[in-house]
Amino acid sequence: MANTPIHSGATRILGLDPGLRRTGWGVVVSEGSRLSWVAHGVVSPPDTLPLSERLLWLLDEVGEVCAAHACDEAAIEEVFVNVNPASTLKLGHARAAVMLAPARAGLSVAEYSPNLIKKAVVGAGHADKTQITFMVKRLLPTCGEVKADAADALAVAITHAQLRRSSRRDGGGEVIAEFGAGNLDDNGRTRPLRHSASLRATSPFASRTGRRS
């Protein structure tokens, strides 16, 4: 997908949703209070390859994404511990390969838990993939159609963009999500939030009872 132009003072962030079969990636530009979409996609190594070659394939492909989109920073989702130890171990292998790609290119790599990403983007810590995709498309209206794995990766990038921009927290210790849907003006710039409840109130998936997700 085509790049958007790099603006002075802008930071290109690569978000990564690791997986051995499908690794989602998404690039956004964070410039002041403005967040814009650059590109997204999914890399899928052939299932017929041995594990070692699939990991090398992921390393090379993600490395090419970093170079192609001139990324400045990267962020990756932490491993979700599966009930199947073998699956968790394989995911860990894939995550290591995916994480090494931006690190090898000299990028800093931040890590975020799945629940934090969901809360930052959707306003609910246990949101499903449909909700994440909906909110990603709302926050990045120019992204067009996006598959679930790529939507997750864009959500990681959005989370990193808002956390690197502001370290403010409310009394409960929750990160204030500055790119919450409904807090964007007509030019795509963020309106200031007084506390994180503002994000939950503007997301159609946030709890209406006031309970924490």
From TrEMBL:
Its EC number is 3.1.21.10. Binds 2 Mg(2+) ion per subunit. It comes from the Bacteria. Mg(2+) 2 binds at E77. GO terms for cellular component: cytoplasm; Holliday junction resolvase complex. Signal peptide: none annotated. Keywords: Cytoplasm, DNA damage, DNA recombination, DNA repair, DNA-binding, Endonuclease, Hydrolase, Magnesium, Metal-binding, Nuclease. The keyword DNA damage applies. It catalyses: Endonucleolytic cleavage at a junction such as a reciprocal single-stranded crossover between two homologous DNA duplexes (Holliday junction). GO terms for biological process: DNA recombination; DNA repair; SOS response. Residues 186-213 are annotated as: Disordered. Its cofactor is Mg(2+). Belongs to the RuvC family. NCBIfam families: ruvC. The RuvA-RuvB-RuvC complex processes Holliday junction (HJ) DNA during genetic recombination and DNA repair. Endonuclease that resolves HJ intermediates. Cleaves cruciform DNA by making single-stranded nicks across the HJ at symmetrical positions within the homologous arms, yielding a 5'-phosphate and a 3'-hydroxyl group; requires a central core of homology in the junction. The consensus cleavage sequence is 5'-(A/T)TT(C/G)-3'. Cleavage occurs on the 3'-side of the TT dinucleotide at the point of strand exchange. Homodimer which binds Holliday junction (HJ) DNA. The HJ becomes 2-fold symmetrical on binding to RuvC with unstacked arms; it has a different conformation from HJ DNA in complex with RuvA. In the full resolvosome a probable DNA-RuvA(4)-RuvB(12)-RuvC(2) complex forms which resolves the HJ. This is Crossover junction endodeoxyribonuclease RuvC. The lineage of its organism: Bacteria, Pseudomonadati, Pseudomonadota, Alphaproteobacteria, Caulobacterales.
